[in-house]
Amino acid sequence: MREIGPQRFATVPVALGERSYPIHIGSGLLSWLGAEIARQTKATRAAVVTVPAVGRRYAGRLLRSLREAGLEARQVTVRDGDTHKNLREAARLYDALLDFGADRSTVVVALGGGTVGDLAGFAAATFLRGVPFVQVPTTLLAMVDASVGGKVGVNLPRGKNLVGAFHQPRLVGIDVDTLASLPVRERAAGLAEVVKAGLLGDAAFFEQLERSAERVLELEPEALLPAIERACAIKAEIVAEDEREAGRRMLLNLGHTLGHAIEALSHYRGILHGEAVAMGMAFAARRSEALGLCPSGVAGRVEDLLGRLGLPTELPRHPRRAYLSALRVDKKRREARIQFVALRAVGRAETVSLTPAEILPAGG
Ligand SMILES: NC(=O)c1ccc[n+]([C@@H]2O[C@H](COP(=O)([O-])OP(=O)(O)OC[C@H]3O[C@@H](n4cnc5c(N)ncnc54)[C@H](O)[C@@H]3O)[C@@H](O)[C@H]2O)c1
Ligand SMILES: [Zn+2]
Q: Each residue of 329-340: pLDDT tens digit?
């Protein structure tokens, strides 16, 4: 952690050869990000893509700092919510970019949560076959997860994230001050992915979260900044090893097999993604214990920590057959196996190949 005048910030590198980029994390970042974007992208124009709730609060500061850095900057507002993360909204975004006179020296800056990052990133990956892209995430989930790793995309009517690309940003700028306006429920949901990072990759970090859970949830800078930094670093490390998800990156799916089933069974209503992941992680921990893959006591610790963050740990009540068919989605054969992410210990995960019925045994 460095001190820059009154500000404190840290930088996490994402090592991807010539596509490497920094993640800057700190307070007061929006006001100097313009100069950093200019330096990293050499762009002459910047389209700041955002949603009303975020733009109203934070776009002004970012646009000002971009203009101070000599860029021509314009705000482009898209519709809020995952239901608008689609091709129609992408087409509106292309139009807005054309109206702005955007060319390959125009940087697309996503200012918002993961929805904005995915949509704006998808537009950046495809407009003119790719223009420079910068992520300025404003939800905790986007800070530690969606903005790291270069996956961008949109939903189709028949499924989520079915169209997309790998398009790495030139830089990620995380201004933790923006979290002040994020509803506490969204904050907690983002913390589920922070817990996941510790659980799959770093026992000491998990223990640090056990010591500081409430302070992180309350956004105390001394607890919050290191937590975001470490979670980003763990994801960055895994992405650097396996950019296109051929192996180790699959571990990031910890809690997501059941999490996605829960989201689908609730028709994506009433449950936030992070909440579904929390339930899925607690389930994965219990199941790993029951299969003798990890020592007993791990599931208890996972449930305790998630509970202290206000996150749910029990699966919602749906019939077992409903869960099984949700798990079988996209699997052509009934007995198709799933790469289930299991725990070997706190801080260590691995995939095991299981059928849906083995993941959810009758009476289990
Ligand atoms: N690309 C990836 O690797 C990846 C990973 C995880 C999730 N995702 C995607 O991310 C999306 C979910 O992201 P999310 O959880 O950030 O949701 P989101 O972007 O929909 O944001 C949630 C809500 O919070 C509001 N908001 C955002 N920042 C705010 C702030 N600072 N203050 C007040 N309100 C604010 C938004 O307007 C929105 O209504 C999904 O579409 C998911 O598919 C992508
Ligand atoms: Zn997730």
A: 755 555 689 999
Q: How far is the CA of 276 from the centre of ligand 2 (A)?
A: 9
pLDDT in tens, 252-261: 999 999 999 9
Residues 84-98: pLDDT tens digits? 999 999 999 999 999
Does ligand 1 lie within 6 Å of residue 105's CB atom?
no
pTM of the model: 0.94
Indicate the top mutation candidate among 58, 152, 186, 249 to test ligand 1's pocket, ranked by most ligand atoms within 8 A of CB: 186
SS (H, E, C) 312-338: CCCCCCCCHHHHHHHHHCCCCCCCCCE
Quick one: pLDDT at residue 83?
94
3-state secondary structure of 198: helix
**Is the pLDDT reported for residue 36 higher than 60?**
yes
Question: Is 167 an active-site residue?
Answer: no
Closest CA to 169 of 9, 67, 23: 23
CA-proximal residue: ligand 1, atom 34 (nearest):
182
Q: Is the four-CA dihedral 335, 256, 49, 151 of positive or negative sign?
A: negative
Range list of H helices, the chain: 33-41, 52-54, 60-68, 87-99, 114-126, 140-141, 184-201, 203-217, 221-241, 256-265, 273-290, 298-308, 320-328, 356-359
- Helix, strand, coil distribution of the chain in percent, nearest 5: 50, 20, 25
Query: Which residue out of 141, 232, 277 has the highest number of ligand 1 atoms within 8 Å of its CB and is therefore the one to mutate?
Result: 141
